[in-house]
User: Fold these one by one.
Assistant:
Number 1:
Amino acid sequence: MAPLNIIIVGAGIAGPAAAIGLAGNGHRVTIYERSTTGQEVGYAFRITPNSDRCLKHLGIDTVVGGAVAANRARIFNSHGELIREANENTDPEMAKKATSVFAYRPQLVKQLMDAARSSGVQIETGVKVTSVDVDNTSLTLDSGATVSADLIIGADGVHSAIRSIINIVYPVDHGKLFNVTICHPAHLSDKEADQEQDNATATSYNHKVSFETVRDVHKGWDPRAIRLLELADPEGFRIWQLMDMDELPRCSRNYTALLGDACHPVLPHSFSGASMAIEDAITLSEFLERDVERKEIPGLLKLCEDVRKPRVARLRERARQTAEGTGVEGRAEYMQFLAGHDAVQFAKERLAEYKRERSQMRTGKQTQL
């Protein structure tokens, strides 16, 4: 069976993760990334065991890349009062299979990109996609060139060009960096936010904000929190809008599909944004096996949607509740739902079920004839 020719637009987390899995299945994969360097500017975030399990399946060890084990988390309010604390990675045997860690996004992306290159993935940076022909499965680039594929994957983030076209605080870096992320009402920093050129810039992780604005936003906070801010490089503060999106009617069309934030951006309050991108990538790569035929792709993309949508919907709603301060109840149950999920095994089971159903349908048609 001839391998598929697959184009992925976007080199964040979902794109290279999917590329590694698909290349491992023998498919030819090319990534197009609009940034000229292919290097991320970003933040640190939590990788829960469900996504760490997926990354290990791809051969990615986040701790080797600089992530720090999230063995204990303590939550304080703005006055410095302890709200709750939780211990994680308490089972040594389970921790070997999947660990909760704090990771620095640029480092994880670099690990994924390096692994993708090692898997034979071709990566083109400084390339912008200007149009997509869904019916003919082709892209037009800003150079004027047109490239065709068996499958196009849009993994180009919350402001996905592909989507619009197809109409569908913790240590990181081996403990050398300390990440501080603080959410605040938008009106408190409107003056600097007004300087943004467009929404895409507003959600970029590279927009600088002055220390004076940061200090004013957090006036009256616990002195220890203010001291943390004062220790930071004044040029190192960044600001961006938090965004999510209601469920799309569909995340695929013919031979074109969306992954990660391009399909379902979620608020960061449920530790699930990057996790969902990684699970998307794993699920799709498990479905597109080595011997898959091109004609099977639309059905498998639909299966991927059916598998992913219910889980993402629950996580999206939980993130919204937590952002509003109403998501405290049932935390243990939620964390088990999030972290206990094995996306690889679940995808294998659903694919086997899908194949059985297809086989039974074909047998039934033959019997009727």
Number 2:
Amino acid sequence: MALFEYTAVTPAGEHKQGTLEANGENQAVENLYSQGLIPVRVAPSRGGDGGERAVRPKAAGRGLFGSGKLTQPDIVAFTQQLASMLKAGLPLDRALGIQLEILEKPAMHRMIGALQSQVRSGVHFADALEETGQFSRFYVNMVRAGEASGSIDDALARLVEYLLRAKELRSTVISALIYPTILFVVAVVSIIALLLFVVPQFSQMFSDMGAELPTITKVVMAAGEGLKQYWWVLLGGIFVVLVLIQYVLTNEKARMWLDRSMLRWPLVGDLTGKVEMARFSRSLGTLLHNGVPLLKALQIVRNTMGNRVMARSVGEAADSLKQGES
């Protein structure tokens, strides 16, 4: 068993620090919950054997969010801890105050300080979140629906689940694309290396022999010689491709054409469609479950989709519903 250091909050809002033995981080967190404590930080003891990572990405002994730019894990950690404290019956103002006391990351400290100030002045929590500019429209509307129904802790808990599943989906997609991308890059580099360094040697050897070469061999050798003499054309081509990519990503019509084309590509189109449908279903289900009206939920979900063609289809479906169609 490993030794873990922890920082927790009691239902009364008091801080408590200490150590406990557990087989891993998850068991340590469960043990704290079973004692009626709300875990804020759990990390391997510096005097222990290491074992597991801390609950939040940070060095041992540091605050909840560390330092540097605000990241998605920061948002997840903030949401998860806030949901736990609200679930335990702490008022929102007190829960935000506890977050301020345990933070070290300047960006998070400023943001939560602003949230607490606005909440104390009577501003709705969802409106305060929206004003920070750090939270998505989806996030803000989930919290707004939770405020309206009086179950903001449940809304935050569902947000944590949604954010973690979204992260898992992104990781799955990235993992699926890494291998073919590496293969493609290695293949291109290998072909360029062969044309620049290997083919010219064979070209000289065949030239000395005076043998008649097949057409395909002549083409390969000509390509190698051309690449060696006009390498700057290759660099220019790469630059043009990068400029085109930038144009496509910033031009709405070009991006729409690319997204439509991607849906028709073998393998890529199928993967893109499945990813977007998973994102659509998960987002819409989460919003509806939290009490957001269907029309508003569709408008929000549309903005969470990456493929413009499918997002436009969702917008058209919302417009049809407005006109009374089923």
